[in-house]
Each structure stands twice: as structure tokens, then as C-alpha cells.
Amino acid sequence: MSRPRVAVVGAGMAGARFAQQFLAHAPGAEVTLYGAEPRGPYNRTLLVDVLTGRYDPDTVALPCGPGARVRTGCEVAAVDTAARTLRLAGGGSAGYDRLVLATGADPVLPPLRGLRAADGTLKPGVHPLRTLDDCHLLAEDASVAHRAVVIGGGVLGVSAARALAALGLPTDIVHRAPFLIERHLDEGAAAALRHGLLSLGVGVHPGRQVRALHGADRVTGAELADGPVLDTDLVVLACGARPRTGLARAAGLKAAEGIVVDDQLAASEPDVFAIGDCAEHRGTVHGLAGPAWDQADVLAARLSGAAPDATYTGSRPLARLTAGPLQYAAFGEVHEAPGTDVLRLVDATRGSYKKLVLLGDRLVGGILLGDLAAVGDLTRAFLGDHAALPADPLDLFTTTEGAAG
Ligand SMILES: Cc1cc2nc3c(=O)[nH]c(=O)nc-3n(C[C@H](O)[C@H](O)[C@H](O)COP(=O)(O)OP(=O)(O)OC[C@H]3O[C@@H](n4cnc5c(N)ncnc54)[C@H](O)[C@@H]3O)c2cc1C
Q: What is the pLDDT of residue 323?
């Protein structure tokens, strides 16, 4: 095969990165991205900054590499892996030699009474936040709303709540788990975060659940499972995301939570691969931009021939939220375990919380919240560069802003 046709289904963060890297290794190759959204790829992690007006939608666009063909508003309706063809929702079909599925994830819509209007669509005033279109609709609605409730206190929920507060809306987060962002933070860091949110006008209700939404023509309140109703005319759903696997399943590809891939990022049929939020590797769906890009880089190196033996063996868990004074970085194992030493520094006045988890002389996890000056050194130490860990790890806590990597 002299010049294989590479098709990428999904023009999101993983698809764009793959195309860009692939074309960097193999200039002039034939790469086509099929994207269901009406615009080309953009940095989804910056949507909240688009919501606050900090970034213009055009400035969050992502490059796909010179010569990549991007077909926007072009949903792929079916894949025939035997014939190696794609059927397009708008009519027509297209062939491929190698297929990369990068279909991302859909927001989870919680099973709440009153979530939908009579016609089955979400009740006016109720919004998911996954795409730029969602962002525009939410911004429009936020400009006429008086109060907001965000359902879900993970990374997305916290960022969305902060953005709504910045737009002048008193906001409440209702979160089922006992503390905020429990996937990345510990209880101490979550308490500091909650304190910071309160000072911005965001109330936090951990360990609580919304069971119903009130209102006929538009949402008027969120009813909690233990009775009280929070008055609101705007609700943001931030209850997680589910890998988009329908296309792959219908094509007979093996899927569990995500499309199952091996260390070559290969799915269960020849010359079909999956990366990003839709992929499940070694039982894990990451749902984060970093791993999506790691996978895209490995696959681009393999398929372009630049590193045909490259494999993906997993990503080190590293999460970062840059939300003004509430920024945090969390990586690795943030909870104490037998044999680990924990260093903690809490500065209630400055609203900062720092924690390192050490196993012998190895840094196995940590949290920085509020003050990220040490994030460069810590990341390097965590990713295996032992030289970056000073003899006294506490010194890392005193790194000054200027020294941050
Ligand atoms: C508001 C928000 C904030 C976030 N913040 C962070 C953060 O701070 N840090 C972090 O690591 N991660 C963050 N994430 C998660 C991150 O955005 C995702 O991990 C990343 O976008 C995954 O890239 P992807 O290409 O797999 O999926 P996506 O970027 O979702 O792209 C998938 C694309 O495929 C398209 N598609 C699906 N099916 C088809 C089809 N059949 N035909 C054509 N096109 C199709 C979709 O329309 C979509 O455009 C955030 C997500 C959101 C929504």
C-alpha cells in the first residue's frame, strides 16, 4: 500500500492531534477527518473560558496538520469493516485503508424527574456542557438567568460553577460524593476548594442528590432527595461522560465501557484503531485530554512508520484545573497507603493546600491547590526524573512562582 487512505472518525481533541502528528511524520499523506460538529477541532478543555468570555471561540481552534482534509458537519452513520467503507449520515460513502475511531464521549444525563419537556428535549434552562454549541446556548441562557444549580461536583462541575459565578450568577453545586472532585483530590484539598468557591459566591452541597427538577415551561427549582428545593432558573448537568461506542458496536467491534483496544491501540478488527475518550485500554477509559494525546501520539508514530513498534502502555494520572485562584494539580496516588509518607502544608489564609505522597525516595502522588508554583518540579519528579526531587522534599513547597516550570 503506497499511500494508504487514513480516515479519522471524530474531529475532536484526539482526532486533531493524531492527524497533526501523523502528517508531521508523513508529509503529504492522505488523512481525512469526519466531524459531526459544525466546526473543526477545538480545545474542549477551554470551553469554560469561552463561557466566561476569556477566550473567543476562534482562539481555541486546534490545528490538524498541513493537508489534512476536515469534513465538518459530517457524521459517520455506519462502518463496514469488511468492505472498508464509511456510510455518511448526510448521504454518500467513503473508503479507507486504515480507520481511527476518535468519537469521544457524550454527557451523562441523570435520570431525574422533570429533566425533559413534553417533547422529550431537555427542559428549557437545563444544559449539558460538552460542545461549543452547548457553550453558546448556556452563555445565552446565563445572561437572563438569576440563579444557577450545577449537578455534579467533579472537574467539569466545579469549573462550570466558577464560570457562572464569574458571570454574576449565585450558584450552587450539588454533589453526590462526600467531597468535591473526589477522583483527584483528598478531603483536605476539597475543603480548601469549597472554601474558595464560597468566597466566589458558589455554595457547595456535598453528599446530596437532586431527585427532580421543577417548572413547567422552564426550570424553576432543583429538588434534593432529602426534601429541600433550591430555587434556580438555570441547571448545568455535569454528571460525567460516557464513551461514544454506538458506531463501533454496530460495526461488530468489541466494546465494554469503551471501544476495547490493545497496546497497539488496535480494536478487534484489522486496521481499525481507537483513541481518546471513546477508547478503553487495559480496562481504563481515561476521559482526559492528556491520555487522549498520548494515545494519538503513539498511534501516529506507529501508523506513519516513524516508530512502527511504538506501544501505548498507559498514562500517568495527572490532572490539572486552571480556574484562576482555584487552580489545582493532582497526580498519582493522592491517598495515604501503607508504607507511604505524607507531607502536607495548609495555608488557610492564602487558601492553599499542598500534599506530597512519598514511597521511600519516590514521589508517588501529590496535590497542589491554590499555589501551583511547584508544579513543574513536582511533575518532573512524578514522571520519573528523580533529580527533580530535592534531598528534603519539603523544599518543593517553598518554590517561588518565578521558579515554577
Ligand atoms: C467543559 C469540559 C472541560 C474539560 N476540561 C478538561 C481538563 O481541564 N483537563 C482534561 O484533561 N480534560 C478535560 N476535559 C475532557 C477532554 O475535553 C476530553 O478528554 C477530550 O476532549 C477527549 O478528546 P476526544 O477527541 O476523545 O473526544 P472529543 O474531544 O469529545 O471529540 C470527539 C468528536 O467526535 C465527534 N463524533 C462522535 N461521533 C461521530 C461520528 N459518528 N461521526 C463524526 N464525528 C463524530 C464528536 O462530535 C466530537 O466532536 C474537559 C471536557 C469538557 C467537556
A: 59
3-class DSSP assignment, residue 387: helix
Ligand 1 binding pocket includes 34 (Cβ within 6 Å): yes
User: What's the pLDDT tens digit per position in 330-375?
Assistant: 888 888 888 999 999 998 787 889 999 988 888 888 999 988 888 8
What separation in Å is there between the alpha carbon of 12 and the centre of ligand 1?
6
Q: Does residue 288's CB lie within 6 angstroms of at least one atom of ligand 1? A: yes
How many CB atoms neighbour CB 122 within 10 A?
A: 17
CATH superfamily of the domain spanning 126-237: FAD/NAD(P)-binding domain (3.50.50.60)
Task: Output the CA 158–ligand 1 centroid distance in Å.
Answer: 18
Is residue 142 lining ligand 1, measured as CB closer than 6 Å? no
C-alpha cell at 217: 415551561
Ligand 1 neighbourhood includes 277 CB (under 6 angstroms): yes
5-106+241-304 has which CATH code? 3.50.50.60
* Torsional class of 261: left (φ above 0), alpha (ψ -120 to 50), beta (otherwise): beta
The whole-angstrom separation of Cα 286 and Cα 271 is 23
Question: Which tens digits make up the pLDDT trace of 114-139?
Answer: 999 999 999 999 999 999 999 999 99
Longest dimension (CA), the chain: 66
Mutation test of ligand 1: which of 8, 39, 44, 158 has the most ligand atoms closer than 8 Å to its C-beta? 44
Tell me whether domains 5-106+241-304 and 327-403 share a fold: no
Burial class (CB in 10 A: 0-12, 13-18, 19+), 43: middle
Ligand 1 centroid to Cα of residue 105, in Å, is 6
- pLDDT computed for residue 318 by the predictor: 75
**What is residue 335's predicted lDDT score, i.e. its pLDDT?**
86
* Domain spans of the chain, in order of start: 5-106+241-304, 126-237, 327-403
236 Cβ below 6 A of ligand 1 = no
238 lines ligand 1 (CB under 6 A): no
Note the pLDDT of residue 2: 60
Is CATH 3.30.390.30 correct for 327-403?
A: yes
